[in-house]
Amino acid sequence: MARHARYDRKTALEKAVGLFWEKGYHGSSMKQIEQALDMRPGSIYATFSSKDGLFSEALAAYAEEGGRELSAHLEGYDSVVDGLQDYLRGIACRCGDENVAPSRACMIVKTLLESSNTHPALAAQANSILAAIEQSIADLLEQARARGELVQSVDCSRLARLLQAQIMGLRSMGERNLDPQAMRDLGDDMAAILDGFRTHH
User: Distance (Å, rounded) from C-alpha 152 to C-alpha 68?
Assistant: First the structure.
């Protein structure tokens, strides 16, 4: 009878995301990876080829999960703009919550900053993911404009880039351990950016 593997790829990736999100690429040793995934080095290399391969898959999995979270969040709102505003406030609340683990800064942004001069391929992947997220935000804003929620003159691509810059900054601010109320205020301020482009009937 065939011996079943003690792990599955999805579970291994979830554990890898947790480790890499907290410690980053360079801060995660192979010994820590083995312990976090509960896998022997040979199994890790057989499954993911290399540390780079594992990190790349973990980063992609992290990004996909973020996309699913945003989609699921927006399903609860009739208004795209209302949904986006509450999503921004939610990011601020989580960034201000000391109990949120493993780290409040975005894994994608941390990867871009950490690997820009050391691992061009990982930096390029992070940059590509951020570009895709920016495009998805722009698509949502286009949808909101088509539904009459935003003024017709709004440049959705430019506004999406502004919102992404705010989100990246907000998640970095979370690392400063600011007072939770200060983070909530920042979330409200971010949400207010969209109010400036709303149609007022």
Answer: 28
Q: Which residues of the chain have pLDDT under 70?
A: 1-7, 96-105, 201
* Enclosing H/E stretch for 185: helix 180-195
Distances (CA, A) of 113 to 64, 131, 146, 169, 177: 20, 15, 36, 13, 20
| Cα(186)–Cα(75) distance, integer angstroms | 24
Find the helix or strand (DSSP H, E) in which 159 lies. Answer: helix 156-173
Angle in degrees, CA 47, 48, 54, rounded to 5: 140
Q: What is the pLDDT of residues 55-107, one digit of tens each?
A: 999 999 999 998 999 999 999 999 999 999 999 998 888 775 666 544 556 88
Other CB atoms within 10 A of residue 163 CB: 21
Task: Report the 10 Å Cβ neighbour count for 62.
Answer: 21
Contact between 122 and 52 under an 8 Å Cβ cutoff? The reply is yes
Beta bridge partners of 150: 198
